[in-house]
Write a structure and sequence with these properties.
The two termini are 21 Å apart. This protein has 449 residues and is an all-alpha fold. It is built from 19 helices and no strands. Helix 3 runs parallel beside helix 10 (209-216) and helix 10 (209-216) packs across helix 13 (276-308). It is a multi-pass membrane protein.
Length: 449
């Protein structure tokens, strides 16, 4: 694909676009309702985990900025099994994310056009995302930048409105204030079970840093821009998420937060702005489309890398005139085709189970990334005397500690019935990918591809 096209600003916006999706606007309500005000601590832990994984990724990217990013690093550090699992696990998670986001986008659009069948919107958005990715990296970065600017600005405005609401600008002073943090059952009304039960839903909004990793090799100066982008993305999203959730908890008592819709809609209702529901719906739709667009880019790049690395048929590494891995894009689009069908027949509960399974697979890949970093870093430092160290202190304790935290997040899903089903669904998918690896190796497919 095109080399050296993206600026550091576009890399930051692509990163934010790939991370800030519908998951934050929707999953935040579930997390708050599950844990209560202590959900703020869940988000702090999630921000730390994201920062550590991103830090590990940025070290490896700066030392070796290649197409395929973490999949290539896993192969070099862990061997064939590392490269295979990292690539296919990420691709599977990305396809599920894409499918869920396109379905969510269609649902949001039906708010304005309730009589139009859901599958029509899913099909329209699928075609749109495929076309954007077929245009190449530069156009992808431009589209992501515009989408990211819209939703980040919107979340900032929502937070400011919430602050005004906290100080009684919109009335109802008796029901609003920081007292909402402790008067409705205390800071942790549902105890340790509620705190643990909200961990996955608080981490999901931080997922998507892999898109930045995949895009990093397309920047003008990876060694200079990647560390800068990482700092801005981590700081920006951590402050934005925590401040908006903190304000939300002060304006709306935690037990009144709905799990059926975004809690930010209720927050904005204090303003009495005409058509506020439509405005918020548009913001969430934008968030979903951007995340879907970023996921498509990520899965296409990793499929392309798998084709180059012997772990998928070599025709998947063929590039178009715009340097786009067109066959990898088309194969990855299969997930969107499935979403169009499922948007018509899939019951809501099953949709939620798939989303939970997606989270399980996605964060299992973070564990692979961290373990790769532990094994890969000593190799990189020997090869590169000017090695950039993001983690100057605490190695390898910091990545090992983060792996323990991620394992705790995955296991915490077992105490929430719907998330537990997602846990076992994700586990089955991981076993299937591993079984596929064993079969492919036994049949010598890696040498034939």
């Amino acid at each position: 694909m095109e080399k050296g096209n993206l600026s550091v600003n576009e890399l930051v916006l692509v990163g934010v676009g790939g991370i800030l999706g519908a998951g934050f606007f929707l999953a935040s309500g579930i997390a708050i309702h599950t844990a209560g005000p202590i959900v703020l601590l869940d988000y702090v832990i999630s921000a730390f985990i994201m920062s550590e994984v991103f830090c590990a990724l940025s070290e490896m990217i700066v030392a070796n900025p290649v197409d395929g990013s973490f999949r290539v690093y896993a192969e070099e550090a862990l061997g064939d099994i590392g490269g295979f699992l990292s690539g296919w696990v990420y691709w599977t998670a990305g396809v599920f994310i894409m499918s869920s986001e396109v379905t969510a986008s269609a649902i949001f659009t039906k708010f304005w056009f309730p009589k139009v069948p859901l599958w029509i919107f899913a099909l329209i958005y699928s075609i749109m995302v495929i076309c954007v990715n077929a245009l190449g990296t530069k156009n992808f970065g431009t589209v992501e930048s515009w989408f990211s600017t819209i939703k980040v600005s919107a979340l900032f405005i929502i937070t400011v409105i919430g602050i005004f609401a906290l100080f009684g600008t919109f009335g109802n002073k008796g029901e609003i204030g920081f007292k909402n943090y402790y008067i409705h059952g205390g800071f942790s009304p549902n105890g340790i079970k509620g705190f643990l039960g909200a961990m996955l839903m608080s981490l999901i909004p931080f997922g998507g840093i892999e898109v930045t990793a995949m895009t990093a090799s397309k920047t003008k100066k990876p060694k200079k821009y990647v560390p800068i982008a990482r700092r801005y993305i981590v700081l920006f999203l951590s402050i934005l998420y925590l401040s908006s959730i903190a304000v939300l908890l002060g304006v709306i008592p935690w037990y009144e937060v709905s799990t059926k819709e975004s809690p930010f809609i209720k927050l904005l209702s204090f303003t009495k702005i005409p058509y506020i529901d439509s405005i918020m719906n548009f913001i969430i739709l934008t968030a979903a489309l951007t995340t879907m667009n970023g996921a498509m880019y990520g899965v296409t790049q990793v499929m392309y890398s798998l084709g180059k690395g012997r772990f998928a048929p070599t025709f998947l590494s063929k590039l178009s005139k715009r340097d786009v891995p067109i066959y990898a894009l088309l194969i990855s689009s299969f997930g969107l085709l499935v979403a169009v069908v499922l948007s018509y027949i899939l019951p809501k509960d099953v949709y939620e189970y798939i989303t939970s399974a997606t989270g399980f697979i996605q964060f299992f890949n973070w564990i692979i990334i961290l373990y790769t970093f532990i094994r890969y870093r000593p190799m990189l430092k020997k090869k590169n005397p000017d090695y950039f160290e993001c983690q100057k202190h605490g190695f390898p304790l910091r990545p090992w500690f983060t792996i323990i935290l991620l394992t705790a997040v995955l296991l915490s899903t077992l105490i929430v019935p719907k998330q537990a089903i997602g846990f076992f669904g994700g586990l089955i998918l991981l076993i299937a990918i591993f079984t596929f690896y064993l079969i492919a190796k036994k049949l010598n497919l890696f040498d034939k591809w």
